[in-house]
Specification:
The structure holds two protein chains of two kinds. By secondary structure, chain A is α/β, with parallel strands linked by helices. Chain A is built from 14 helices and eleven strands. Chain A has a seven-stranded mixed sheet with strand order 6-7-8-3-9-10-11, sandwiched between helices. In chain A, α6 crosses α8 and α8 runs parallel beside α9. Chain A starts with a helix and ends in a 5-residue tail after the last helix. Chain B has two domains: 240 residues, P-loop containing nucleotide triphosphate hydrolases (Rossmann fold, 3-Layer(aba) Sandwich), CATH 3.40.50; 86 residues, no CATH class. Chain B is 30% helix and 22% strand. In chain B, the strands form three sheets. In chain B, strands 6-7-8-3-9-10-13-12 form an eight-stranded mixed sheet, with helices on both faces. Chain B has a four-stranded antiparallel sheet with strand order 2-1-4-5. In chain B, strands 11-14 form a two-stranded parallel sheet. The longest helix of chain B is centred in the middle third of the chain and has 18 residues. The relative contact order of chain B is 0.13. Classes of the chains: A alpha/beta, B alpha/beta. Chains A and B meet through α8, α9, α10, α11 and α12 of A and α7, α8, α10 and α12 of B.
Chain lengths: 353, 373
Amino acid sequence: MTTLTKTEDAAAPTGADSFLSVRDLKVRFSTEDGIVKAVDGLSFDVERGKTLGIVGESGSGKSVTNLTILGLHNPRNTTIDGEIVLDGKELVTATEKELEHLRGNKMAMIFQDPLTALSPYYTVGRQLSEPFMKHRGASKKEAKDRAIEMLAKVGIPQPKVRFDDYPHQFSGGMRQRAMIAMALMCDPDLLIADEPTTALDVTVQAQILDLLKDLQQEIGSAIIFITHDLGVISHMADDLLVMYAGRAVERGSVREVMREPKHPYTWGLLSSMPRLDSNIDEMLEPIPGAPPSLLNPPSGCPFHPRCAYRDQVSGTLCTDTRPPLGEGRAAACHLTAEQKQTIFIDKIQPRLR
Amino acid sequence: MSDNLTLPAQQGPADAPSPTETLLEVQDLTKHFPIYGGFPFKRKVGAVQAVDGVSLTVGVGESVGLVGESGCGKSTTGRLITRLLEPTGGKITYAGRDITHASRKELAPVRSEIQMIFQDPYSSLNPRQTVGSIIKSPMEVNGIEPAGGREKKVRELLELVGLNPEHYNRFPHEFSGGQRQRIGVARALALEPKLIVADEPVSALDVSIQAQVVNLLQQVQKELGIAFLFIAHDLAVVRHFSQRVAVMYLGKVVEVGDRDSIYTRPRHPYTHALLSAVPEIGIEDGAGEGRERIRLSGDVPSPISPPSGCRFRTRCWKAQDKCATEEPPLVQLSGNRAGHLTACHFPEEPSIEARDEDVVMDPALKALEEDAD
């Protein structure tokens, strides 16, 4: 831990009160076809004990952001600008060794597909013990006790027997439980869950979501919860970040965003999703077109080619200028507040119940 | 239509059903995949009972949803109906004809009337063929020459599914996932089918694209009067698309009924659990408020050795001794609408309102929640 204390004194000015602070993050991959702007100027904060939900479609940059926080990108073809400050520690410029100290210890990740994220070659128990022995200097025995305790906590029956099993002997839901147990071995302060329930059935998903929520209350870690499912996010998160084409387009508390979304993309997402209580006779209202290629993103507002309300903005503002995302509750859109209000009340609200 | 439903075991007598009646009737459909093992000579050591006695009907122009978790046999049922798999037992009657074990030759005319839309728009289109030849090939195989030629028909189909007819000569890789799924729909429509089996047609697509394809299918269904068997795990999508819904669990239909009955007055505990597990967008304070909360324990058991009696009993909070010994029949319970059948010894109240006390079967969750209290 000694290396960690040598942080630069000039901490990020805005991220002083929050636990994790990401400022103007830009991640670019150079590929054969050109430069992919996977994340383009993203800023957000996560408070201790709170859950930040990130929603967006595939290719919106939500997973890349979080792999970058953990430093899991390939340095050979990736350029990163901006800053990521975790508890006063700058991560973008951190060395691999410093990151190694943090990964699995202070920050941990739960991946989408537990079958590919767990190694088929080692027993579940060994994979769980490893980070604990590495970071805490615990003996094999201590690590085993801890692993069995965690396996029991996440609801794996007969944890003592299951400790010596291989991942393929676990069912899908149990594997995801084992992943959660592994992530929680060292009581991380930051937990990144990247679509942790997408590969699971609904009944199992409901168990895992409730489990994560209850565990968070007990451990008090901050969670970044990534998903494309607005239903899951409204169940899990405190704050919400809607991403589109590598940028945040809307931010606010879950309640604010779900109750009164302010960005046309969020409107589109909400009205294109069928719900258990929606009106059946009404057709769904899809967002026209397809998500843009990040090799060559649209100029100005990245959503303008699919936006239904572009004509309400005068001139070529939407195609020329990228709308900024303000601080706090905000949406990156050129529509004026009154226009948004009118559209929301006339067109969107009736669809939402 | 409902008459056909109440008695799943009845024999299909009709030779030629009248147009407003049953198009497809499935009785006691069974598919067991054998497992071989042993040394030195492989013997059959067991069977995956993927589908075990499924009965359902699809009326002309009707859309029936088939929901359930992965491994419950819904896709296998779809493949059996399209006869891509050979049934182990049971009977499939299509338009009055028994096609259960029909030969290739006998099936040929039926095959053009039953089409399939697949889940993965990436692997279900041949990357070496142009869109034109992909959509054209069903017509070539069946020797159909539409008025104005096949190419004209393909262009019409492309237009119908919302693609540019100019894209006739493009290859699948030039299209996005949603557009590819549209190509799959166009291919299924090429032979003017009467029944389309859609196996998770939207689950591989992005949220904003899903609605486009659901709307397209709905439009096709309404305008062309095609019957659909819509297989999906997303309950909200199924509700939006289907007039009737069958819920499957471990190879069996546990509840079937019209949309309203299943979604607002379900009787089978599993249907209750499924509905309560759907994470709903909470616009009001707190997500899912007002709906019951049921958390099952564990995963679906293995279909190699399913539980005796009622297959859901191992995860059911109402299970009693009777459930282990006696398999509940799929019957109409008193107070239910005609056609709403449930297979349960101890059915639930027909309501999805929040209960006095949540049902939490999961031991870890229970422990954590008790700690918190």
